[in-house]
Amino acid sequence: GESVGLHLPTLSVQEGDNSIINCAYSNSASDYFIWYKQESGKGPQFIIDIRSNMDKRQGQRVTVLLNKTVKHLSLQIAATQPGDSAVYFCAENANDYKLSFGAGTTVTVRA
Amino acid sequence: NAGVTQTPKFQVLKTGQSMTLQCAQDMNHNSMYWYRQDPGMGLRLIYYSASEGTTDKGEVPNGYNVSRLNKREFSLRLESAAPSQTSVYFCASSPPGGYSNQPQHFGDGTRLSIL
Question: CA A60, B29, A28 angle in degrees (round to 5)?
Answer without folding.
Answer: 65
